[in-house]
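Quick one, T. Sequence first:
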Amino acid sequence: MIKMYNFKKQYNSIKEEIDFSIQSVLDDSAFSSGKYVESFENKFSNYIGSKYCVAVNNGTSALHAALLALDIKSGDEVLVPSFSFFATCESVSLTGATPVFVDSDYQNFNLDLDDLELKINSNTKAIICVHLYGQSCDMNKLKEITNKYNLYLIEDAAQAHGAEYMNKKVGTFGDFSCFSFYPTKNLGAYGEGGAVLTDNKVYYEKLQSIRNHGSFKQYHHNIIGHNFRMSGFQGAILSIKLDYLDQWNSIRLRNAKLYNTYLNQINGVQIPQLVDGYKHVFHQYVIKVKNRDLLKDFLSENNIDSAIYYPIPCHLQEVYKMKVGSNVIAEKLANEVLALPIAEHITEDNIKYISGSICKFYN
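Structure tokens:
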């Protein structure tokens, strides 16, 4: 089976460094926060190009903490993409605020910025843009909108580690950027992890308090916070893996270009775009296809793993209970998208076989 991920192969390629980093945490008993997390925070903020980084326990906590730092609360509205992982809208609901679902751009999967602007009203306080699958949103236009309406901007960069927009890394455009280090991400922990980045010192200090029970000083609590601390093991592991991120991303881009070459002429298959000025890091290589579910079954029968990100748009989830037709492009995408194996363990021979199998299905 050609798998979507091969964690063991990746680990074996850097085993000596990873094992040493884990042993160091054990030797120093630096299990929760501590120097290994601080080292990663400094290293990651330098990599992205942001002044401050606050590491947390997962990507959902990162989004939640950013919203809390902005004092988003009941009665407020936050614009979010409907076609995204549930954590994006969930984090808004956790504050008591209301997520307002925005439709998608059919070509790049990201926010439809025309639809977004139509949904701004006096209760709108912020926008969360998701750089879906590793492709940046149109940040110039987004910044124009946030400036025009005086809105906060949070970048959900959970799938975009190392992605760029106009030669600048995503995660440097908003008031905050939020990253996930879930194991499947381009930069994945061996467990859970996340981070919030900002250039604002006041927000930075507030985030440090929020992640630690609202405490700036041990046993002194100025606000109600959460236990969002990152473990020392994940900080140490991520520091090692960050050194390899650009190399692994370059392999993903190579693989994506190979897929595009082999799949480009197959009727019924639409390949993802590579746009000038955008550096796509292909957290997922996602095609749009006819008879998606049948194709997925066919690939499985031919020992090829694939995945659907995402089969149900957020606005149609049971907890939100919106009507079908509320965001028609998001609903269309949910019926057409299919992710193929793209990570650094995938070879050109794998891609030829996968592409040949897809061609066979449609011909």
